[in-house]
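agent> fetching stored inputs for the L-MYO-inositol-1-phosphate docking request
agent> found them:
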Amino acid sequence: MTRSVPPPAELLEIAVEVARDAAATAYRMRAEGVSIAATKSTVTDVVTAADRAVERQVLDALAKQRPDDAVLGEEYGAAEAAAAPSGVRWIVDPIDGTVNYLYAIPYCAVSLAAEVDGEVVAGVVRNIFTGEEWTATAGGGAWRDGRRLRCSTETDPGQALVATGFGYDPGRRSHQARVIAELIPHVRDIRRLGAAALDLCLAAEGRVDAYYEKGLAAWDLAAGGLVAAEAGLRVTGLRGLPAGPDLVIAAPPALFQPLHDRLADLDASGGP
Ligand code: LIP
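agent> prediction call returned; pasting tokens
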């Protein structure tokens, strides 16, 4: 197998085409009626037939266009070889915000990113209901529907609107609730909207000032994290660690340190 790594703009074109078709399928299946097909980590961690069908559609579309790439997806895992002979690995969340999707709340998205040698270089997040589409390439900026995005310029943590989310495990949720109880007096307000990829995109355009969450998987973070970083947010973990399952903080430079320090003091990356 020979290495075949197109430029990020070409990878983004593929991602956008595949994500648009996937979002159309998700929207059609939602209109036809969906139900819970299975549960995963807990009884509230649900998967629908649409999650599986959409990811299968993405896998098939990528296999047709880029047969030597690897793919990591929420529902089928590393469906292809973990190491990508071509040097490109795709990371897909077929429906981020599955509970919102199940309840027909218009805040859920197809998230698809391309990773080269471990670095995400292109990503798209498309809201299944509204068609809002965020894209980014490494070094190429973040965009929504053709408009270049810049993050919030808020400098006062007490005026910051902060998005976050909760895991499915009851023990983790209790710890996260304790963190939020201590945080909320020190910020403008909290928003728990239910889809990490979209939360990161809202932060990219200042529709929330910052975002943090413990427990994100690679598919929750990959595309939205690139959009946020390309819009000027710092996207990291705690104490110099990279963003990952322990914690993701996405904040503008002026807010990052005070939010980081308060989350560190509150042990936001701790708990079950
Ligand atoms: C969701 C995340 C969200 C989190 C939810 C859930 P899913 O992903 O995007 O940030 O708070 O609990 O994990 O499960 O809908 O793909």
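agent> quick read of the result: The chain has a mean pLDDT of 95.
agent> awaiting further instructions
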